[in-house]
Amino acid sequence: MSTYSVIEHLLFPPTFFHSQKLRLALEGKTVLITGASSGIGEQLSYLLADQRVHLILVARREDKLQAMKKELEARGATISLFAADLRQDQEMEGLLAFLHQLPDGLDLVVSNAGHSIRRSIYDSLDRLHDFTRTMAIHYFAPVRLLMSVLPLLEKKQGQIINISTVNALLLPFPQWAAYQASKAAFDTWFRSAQPEMNNRGIATTSIYFPLVRTPMIEPTEAYRTFPAMSSMHAARIIGKAIYSKRKQYKPWWLIFGQLASVVFRRWLEKGISRSLQRGKGK
């Protein structure tokens, strides 16, 4: 785990999980991880590869997946790779066909694939694709994936873990309209569908991560010095959710942010407006 600053230690206290419980939960299971070639997905792949488990790793970059495979297999896991852009119909169809022919079925889906865009809507007036591609990867792709594999998961009494964001539960911020709207869309779909899936024996977990230090945040200069959780820390939280089956993970401080988003919404919106005005005057 990367070195934390004092404030990061306070914001992201250690997550302790029981390795033996994780091993028992994953013994002989088949796990699908989307967005597996970097960031949280990559770290989770390495964390789970120490178990006797079949990992199906999905990402766009086949070269990165191939580079990971040899090292992961040396740890004891069985690794299947599927290079695909889940926004593309034909590539999604190929993945779904592959999953439905698995001889041992599917036990766990970690829906992690994502794409971050920070841009003013006024810089996106001729960039509708900023919104269509975030909706494609954050909403339509996971909905299509889960709608197809629900019968497989029900048969194995499996689990779905959705990697969400604290922003889905807080007052929206400007310049993140494409990202926040698409993440919130799937978060709402998932929470709405949870009771039905749970009623069929499928465990569901929503993980609301704060800023996580991954390659996805690199283009945003301000985030390079902003407090952020390490990707290994995030992977350990997911690992604990696999055996604990807890329905949600939220940072301890998120409740205060949610309260402020309701009680102080008027003042927060005024502050955001003033900040934008100052930025416009520069």
From TrEMBL:
InterPro entries on file: NAD(P)-bd_dom_sf, SDR_fam
Keywords carried by this UniProt record: Oxidoreductase
Keyword Oxidoreductase: yes
Entry GO CC: membrane
Stretch forming the signal peptide: none
Domain of life: Bacteria
Protein known as: Short-chain dehydrogenase
Family: Belongs to the short-chain dehydrogenases/reductases (SDR) family.
PANTHER family: DEHYDROGENASE/REDUCTASE SDR FAMILY MEMBER 7B, DEHYDROGENASE_REDUCTASE SDR FAMILY MEMBER 7B
Sample GO molecular function, one term: oxidoreductase activity
Lipid biosynthesis in keyword set: no
